[in-house]
């Protein structure tokens, strides 16, 4: 398939405003890029925008679990992760308070978002989507029952105040936690859990010289759990070590450095001291949140922008891929007429509630349990004594989504 070059943001930002797009997708993460690819493959004029340039690092557990791979296979992208050098996952190693349990995983691959997101963006371009990077996007309130939506674009990381308005028949917000592109729309609101943790993540690329890391083998998700949060560690392509953590805000504020907080959680859990003082960490907004709706007036929401809860073994990626794959036919339906648009919005809300939000309840329950020291102790003792009891949970989290 012939590659379609992205629009050069420095000189051709204005040209994006001269087209009435069938769909403007905001956010080029897994959900946004996959949705844009599916829409472009169907011949729809699709514009995909992101505030970052690619490739770029992203706070993430870096695990594409069995459920996520199934969603990619449904889009004929089953080889994408392996082409990135993804490492096959076989076990989940959990430690807390010196207790240890190792569980079998039904498949999955570990790959950095630095690599994966760039490949998915290329797949969207190859399908015919136009892309703009390093731009901030803001969906404007709809005026006078216009048949299209307007999005204001501004250059990111620039002192220029130039604003460009692009028009789309539909909009898909896939721009992550808090859906910043929708802040000007009163119909979309977030409720953030009072006890929500924040995310921290980074990749240690020079760990080969440290013997302290030798026991962290490829193919295993290592998770250290403690009173202040949990830290996941996994080997990704090239042997790099990916860190992703969810920590209490109070612990983060009181720590001398975020690396110290993560190191304490890891050592207390039973993995021993790890020299991560040189690990460059990036933070996130509060993780656990819900959105009041995922569709309204030709605007659809998907991925982390549609609500999030702390994941454990790649669930976040699975929700993103399943959402990106499922929302594309709904958007196609909405383009027919105003009646179809309203039906499509209802259809997407129902699909999200039944197929995505319902699956997030497992993680919400586990997150609730693992916030409590006594709960951690009981859970670990039970898992150590009866490891087979944990298998249904792992299998449920990795089961394929219904059609």
Automatic annotation (TrEMBL):
<dbReference type="GO" id="GO:0016491">
    <property type="term" value="F:oxidoreductase activity"/>
</dbReference>
<dbReference type="InterPro" id="IPR050407">
    <property type="entry name" value="Geranylgeranyl_reductase"/>
</dbReference>
<dbReference type="GO" id="GO:0071949">
    <property type="term" value="F:FAD binding"/>
</dbReference>
<dbReference type="InterPro" id="IPR036188">
    <property type="entry name" value="FAD/NAD-bd_sf"/>
</dbReference>
<protein>
    <submittedName>
        <fullName>Putative oxidoreductase</fullName>
        <ecNumber>1.-.-.-</ecNumber>
    </submittedName>
</protein>
<keyword id="KW-0560">Oxidoreductase</keyword>
<dbReference type="InterPro" id="IPR002938">
    <property type="entry name" value="FAD-bd"/>
</dbReference>
<feature type="domain" description="FAD-binding">
    <location>
        <begin position="23"/>
        <end position="320"/>
    </location>
</feature>
<dbReference type="Pfam" id="PF01494">
    <property type="entry name" value="FAD_binding_3"/>
</dbReference>
């Amino acid at each position: 398939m012939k590659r379609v070059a992205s629009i050069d943001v420095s000189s051709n930002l204005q040209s994006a405003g001269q087209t009435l797009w069938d769909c403007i997708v905001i956010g080029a993460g897994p959900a946004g890029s996959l949705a844009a690819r599916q829409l472009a493959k169907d011949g729809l004029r699709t514009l995909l925008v992101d505030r970052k340039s690619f490739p770029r690092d992203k706070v993430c557990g870096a695990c594409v679990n069995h459920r996520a791979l199934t969603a990619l296979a449904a889009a004929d992208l089953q080889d994408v992760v392996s082409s990135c050098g993804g490492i096959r996952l076989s076990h989940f190693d959990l430690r807390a308070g010196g207790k240890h349990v190792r569980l079998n995983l039904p498949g999955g691959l570990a790959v950095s978002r630095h690599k994966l997101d760039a490949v998915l963006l290329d797949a969207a371009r190859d399908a015919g989507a136009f892309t703009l990077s390093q731009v901030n996007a803001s969906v404007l309130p709809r005026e006078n029952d216009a048949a299209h939506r307007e999005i204001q674009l501004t250059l990111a990381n620039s002192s220029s105040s130039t604003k460009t308005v692009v028009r789309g028949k539909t909009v898909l917000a896939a721009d992550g936690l808090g859906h910043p592109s929708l802040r000007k729309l009163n119909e979309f609101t977030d409720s953030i859990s009072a006890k929500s943790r924040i995310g921290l993540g980074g990749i240690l690329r020079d760990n080969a010289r440290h013997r302290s890391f030798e026991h962290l083998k490829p193919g295993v998700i290592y998770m250290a759990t403690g009173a202040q949060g949990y830290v996941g560690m996994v080997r990704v392509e090239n042997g790099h070590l990916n860190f992703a953590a969810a920590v209490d805000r109070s612990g983060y504020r009181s720590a001398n450095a975020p690396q110290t907080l993560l190191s304490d959680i890891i050592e207390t859990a039973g993995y021993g001291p790890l020299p991560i003082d040189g690990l460059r960490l990036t933070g996130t907004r509060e993780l656990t949140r819900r959105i009041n709706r995922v569709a309204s007036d030709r605007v659809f929401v998907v991925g982390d922008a549609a609500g999030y809860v702390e994941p454990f073994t790649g669930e976040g990626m699975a929700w993103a891929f399943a959402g990106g794959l499922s929302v594309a036919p709904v958007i196609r339906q909405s383009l027919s007429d105003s009646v179809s648009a309203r039906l499509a919005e209802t259809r997407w809300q129902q699909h999200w509630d039944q197929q995505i939000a319902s699956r997030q309840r497992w993680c919400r329950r586990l997150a609730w349990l693992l916030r409590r020291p006594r709960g951690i102790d009981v859970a670990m003792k039970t898992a150590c004594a009866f490891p087979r009891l944990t298998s249904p949970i792992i299998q449920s989290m990795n089961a394929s989504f219904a059609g």
